[in-house]
UniProtKB/TrEMBL annotation:
Top-level taxon of origin: Bacteria
UniProt-listed InterPro entries: Endonuclease_RusA-like, RusA-like_sf
Taxon lineage: Bacteria, Pseudomonadati, Bacteroidota, Sphingobacteriia, Sphingobacteriales
Pfam families: RusA
Protein name: Uncharacterized protein
Amino acid sequence: MIDFEVLGDPKALKRHRMGRGFNYDPSAGDKATFAQIAQVKAPTVPLNVALFVQITFYFARPKHHYGTGKNSNKLKPNVGNYHTSKPDIDNLEKFVFDALTGIFWKDDSYISHVMSAKVYTEGTPKTVVYIKEAELPPRHDKT
């Protein structure tokens, strides 16, 4: 079992760009920084077994979630805990998968089970990652 957190705003994978005869990855620098921070918890050899990965993306609450004046430190009653705007969760996941490929797993195709959430935090924005060998879920088919 491996778990770690990377402080800072969660990053989404940006689409590759075409230049004059070359491809450019606009997320390359962010992925390298993420991987460097996570490297402390990396296995000695990249994993090559079926993996379960759980990721929680913690976003800072926007100011409009809070009251005004003497209530400026209180949340409004109608705001939720889940982050339901951009970036999309699949782009956030893909950023993490790509950043950790070759370090935590041989290839992200080894990830067979994923559980992710985008939530608001009152604290520091961060990405929390939990990795373990996948276990088979109960069978739901009749074969």
